[in-house]
Amino acid sequence: GHAFYRVSYGPELQSALLDGLGDLAPLERYAVLDDAYGLTLRGDRRAGDLAATVQRIADVGETDLSVWQLAASSIEAIDRAASEDERPAVSAWVRRLLAPLAAELGDEVDPTDDDRTRAL
Question: 107: how many CB neighbours lie within 10 A of its CB?
Answer without folding.
Answer: 6
